[in-house]
Amino acid sequence: MKKLDRVALASLPTPVEALPSLTTALGGPQLLVKRDDLTGLAFGGNKTRKLEYLAAEARAKGARMLITAGSIQSNHCRQTAAAARKLGMDCTLVLVGKPTLSPEANTYLDMLFGAELIWVPKPERRELRLKEVFAAKHAASRKPFLIPYGGSNPTGAAAYAYAVQELAKQKVEPDWIVFATSSGGTQAGLVAGVALTEMKTKVLGISVDEKAKTLADRVATLATETVTLLGEKKRFKSRDIRVNDDYLGAGYAEMGNREHEAIHLFARHEGLLLDPVYTGRAAAGLADLIRKDFFKKKDTVLFWHTGGQPALFADKYRTGLLE
Ligand SMILES: Cc1ncc(COP(=O)(O)O)c(C=O)c1O
Cα(75) to centroid of ligand 1, in Å? Predict the structure, then answer.
């Protein structure tokens, strides 16, 4: 794999840990966790890996500010705001929601980093507003660099192909990798990385908000483009991509009983924190699939923890989790 330019933002390699108590509690395959919640930058998470390559591209282009978009509790936005500051840049975030006088959790952190927050009332307005903001900053000679939603373009996804190389160096080759998938960059990178390192591992994304077919199409395209960017050749089809959309529950960022149970399972068996939106939903899917004997007992299943825990402190989830 070709090496792309990188700026160091993350503490790597992240540890791989066994989950013995959870393995026993679920009576299932051997469970491991890859701790990308420990990537380090401003409470870490998967976006920090992507930002190492996206920010390098921004720097190479002489950018002085990063612009991106996300939901009100976007982990991607929080990590982008922190990355911008670490690199001496400004940051503007287009957030879906209403301006608030008492920002919570990730939004509170965005403000601590001094990011400029621009609000749009509905997700459908996000992309257009992002383009308008970029054009306005460009016209004002602020040298903006646009990071797509979720950092999910080939440059961002490449970080997860390298993350698979990191896993191979840790001498871990699980039968399955299970994780939360949303904008698809993490999954595209993992799929590309597993193919290029010739691992036998199967990559299963638990969708947080998208229908499986939509996401599989997007991931296949992005994985193909990522491999090309890395100077290799391989074409992925939608049917090569494993996405499970059985756990969408009441919709994006709506915590239900399943997420509630998964957060408690991990907290009380392993002292490990999940988040209510992404890893909680993915872990709920994992637990359910184990109970349905989807995996073989002798399998090793690695849960790739993608971070997101600051959302635990948002009022919307905090109270419910203690019930
Ligand atoms: C904690 C967490 N996990 C998983 C994801 C999904 O990653 P991707 O957007 O690359 O599919 C996100 C995206 O925002 C996230 O914040």
Answer: 8
- The CATH topology of domain 16-45+153-321 is Rossmann fold (3.40.50)
Contacts of 113-119 with C-beta under 8 Å, sequence gap 24+, read: 113/42, 113/78, 113/81, 113/82, 113/84, 113/85, 114/81, 114/85, 114/90, 115/77, 115/81, 115/84, 115/91, 116/90, 116/91, 116/92, 117/92, 117/93, 118/92, 118/93, 118/94, 119/94, 119/95
Q: Is the CB of 76 under 6 A from ligand 1?
A: yes
Instruction: List the residue whose alpha carbon is closest to atom 1 of ligand 1.
Output: 308
- pLDDT tens-digit profile of 36-54? 999 999 999 999 999 999 9
pTM, two decimals, is 0.98
* Ligand 1 binding pocket includes 50 (Cβ within 6 Å): no
Architecture of the domain made up of 47-151: 3-Layer(aba) Sandwich (3.40)
Mind telling me the catalytic residues? 74
275 lines ligand 1 (CB under 6 A): yes
